[in-house]
Specification:
Layout (H helix, E strand, L loop, with lengths): L3 E4 L5 H12 L3 E6 L6 H7 L3 E5 L5 H15 L4 E4 L14 H29 L2 E6 L12 H21 L4 E8 L24 H11 L7 H12 L7 E4 L1 H20 L1 H5 L7
Parallel strand pairs: 1-2, 1-4, 2-3, 4-5, 5-6, 6-7
Helix pairs in contact: 1-7, 3-4, 4-5
């Protein structure tokens, strides 16, 4: 059976690659972007199987309209992909609170808003999948990307709770954690600043690496899209899925270090309980 997808942030990057793969698979698609004019080639490609919609994910009313329009057009909604997002590079000290708010609004609240708009439909039809596009920076703090990691860590916590709440309805939630993919995420989508000279050896090196990295990332967006299609067909999908060898290596290293630290401090951690009489 052909499925109906709603994907945010389809104008470029992983969102665009996934939109193309969904159409190639014969599924139906509600493709969203701030400017739906950027989706004209997708519309030509998908014909009556695609609905291009304007959507600023931070706008609750627009999200509700997008979900309703999708259901009205296709009769149902099966998969929501919260993909829209961006992340700048700068030291936390040199990042304004306004920039923190803007990045968290898009990367965290945008996903929350779209999720809440779709959730009643999934609950009523007793099926559905949320694919939450986080980042390896949502599992391990990405130096120079304080607001971005803060948002992605928040998205992961939100999605863990969501997964437990909606499981009885037959609704699945998977957090997808990509590593470096050859999109413009590290290019025109990102503002990069080294910040104060005292951060030259930390964020400064991250900024330099980011500039040199653009166009050389190991991840292939088209292959990521195929992996997400396979994930969307899994009968028992995982709560988390990393994408890319770099993400897998980073996740493994981070989780093992976290577990080792937990165990090293176990005695002090457990010393806070009441003493048994």
């Amino acid at each position: 059976m052909n499925r109906t997808w709603l994907i945010t942030g389809c104008s470029r990057g992983l969102g665009r690659a996934l939109a193309e793969a969904v159409l190639d698979a014969g599924d139906r698609l509600a493709a969203t972007a701030r400017d739906p004019g950027t989706l004209a080639d997708l519309v030509a490609r998908g014909g009556d199987r695609i609905l291009a919609l304007p959507l600023d994910v931070t706008d609750e009313e627009a999200a509700a309209r997008a979900v309703a329009a999708t259901v009205e057009r296709f009769g149902r909604l099966d998969i929501v992909v919260n993909n829209a997002g961006y992340g700048d590079v700068a030291p936390i000290e040199n990042t304004s609170v306004a920039s923190f708010r803007a990045q968290i609004e898009t990367n965290l609240f945008g996903a929350i808003i779209v999720t809440k708009a779709a959730l009643p439909f999934f609950r009523r039809q007793r099926s559905g999948r949320f694919l939450q596009l986080s980042s390896i920076g949502g599992r391990m703090g990405a130096m120079g990307r304080g607001p971005y990691s803060a948002a992605k860590f928040g998205l992961e916590g939100f999605s863990e709770v969501l997964a437990r709440e909606v499981a009885p309805f037959g609704v699945h939630v998977t957090i997808v954690e990509p590593g470096g993919f050859r999109t413009d995420f590290a290019g025109t989508s990102t503002r990069i600043a080294e910040g104060d000279a005292d951060y030259a050896e930390t964020v400064g090196k991250t900024a330099a690496m980011q500039r040199a990295y653009d166009g050389k990332q190991p991840g292939d967006p088209a292959r990521a899209a195929l992996a997400i299609l396979a994930l969307a067909s899994a009968e028992k999908p995982p709560l988390r899925l990393v994408l890319g060898r770099d993400a897998y290596a980073g996740a493994e290293r981070t989780d093992e270090a976290r577990l080792a630290e937990l165990r090293a401090w176990r005695e002090l951690s457990e010393s806070t309980d009441f003493v048994k009489s």
